[in-house]
Amino acid sequence: MKWYTNIIYMKINKKNYTFCIEENIDKEGLMMNELLFKATNLIYKSNLTYNDVKIKKGMINFIVGESGSGKSTFLKLLNQSINPVSGELLYNGLSISEYDPIALRREVSLVSQEVFLFDESITDNFSTFYALRQKPIPNKEYITYITDICCVNVPLNQITSTLSGGERQRVYISIFLSLCPSVILLDEPTSALDEKNSLKMLKNIINFCKAKTIDIVIVSHNKTIVDEFCENKIEIVKEA
Fold first, then answer.
1. Which strand (E) or helix (H) includes residue 132?
2. For each of the chain's 240 residues, which pLDDT tens digit applies?
3. Considering Cα of 28, then 32, then 38, then 39, what sign does the dihedral take?
4. Angle formed at CA 94 by CA 91 and CA 99, multiple of 5 degrees
5. What are the extents of the domains in the chain?
6. Helix or strand or coil: residue 71?
7. Which CATH number fits domain 2-238: 3.40.50.1970, 3.40.50.300, 3.30.870.10, 1.10.760.10?
8. Prediction pTM value
9. N or C terminus: fewer CB in 10 A for the chain?
10. What pairing do the DSSP bridges indicate for beta strands 215-219 and 60-65?
11. Residue 100 contacts by C-beta under 8 Å, 6 or more apart in sequence?
């Protein structure tokens, strides 16, 4: 078994960046994993270009790099929260434009850093999100189970507006995780946690996703987290 690194060039505001992707390739030079997403000359607002970016199916994918380099923007492109100016983005081998945007966002769920919760209890937030998706309301046992996975250590009847920023983020992650999408996109999911709890929560989430065959793409600045869990890394590196 050999490991190779693909160098992918990116231009941001006339500054050059490079994507370095470690890829697991067998001795015959064949990809060992199917591609979940592939971006080719994908341009957003003329100042962000993503070229030859490969997200792998069945692996823990991490996107890392400098602040402001376009990592969060790339996540939004993956589920059509925003749209590119030009270029090609494939999801499961099909152009992303072939998918209905609403259906795609439910299948490929983005949990951004901008948390949106209703001003009601944690339990009622689950009920509201499920009702909006026209899905059966989960029972208390399932809500308790999924919030424990995400280290939500507050009563489920607590009003979300009284929670800290970090608690709100973990509740938000737990709601989207509970819906069991095909793909979950996590933007800095451990930013409000200390290292010990960051490792615990992410390990829980990854184990849950692997059991449910949910593909994961994570943006993170936390090197410890990346080193511990990453199976496929996409790194944006500024060229000298």
1. helix 122-132
2. 333 334 444 444 445 444 444 444 433 343 545 899 999 999 998 778 888 899 999 999 999 988 877 899 999 999 999 999 999 999 999 999 999 999 999 999 999 999 999 999 999 999 999 999 999 999 999 999 999 999 999 999 999 999 999 999 999 999 999 999 999 999 999 988 888 899 999 999 999 999 999 999 999 999 999 999 999 999 765 444
3. negative
4. 80
5. 2-238
6. helix
7. 3.40.50.300
8. 0.85
9. C
10. parallel
11. none
Beta bridge partners of 90: 38, 95
From CA 197, how far away is CA 203, in angstroms rounded? 10
Backbone angles phi, psi at 21, to 5 degrees: -115, 120
- Written as six digits, the tokens of 163 are 């929670």
Tell me, what DSSP letter sits at residue 161? G
Residues 71, 65 contacting (CB under 8 angstroms): yes
The H-assigned helical ranges of 150-238 are 165-178, 195-211, 223-229
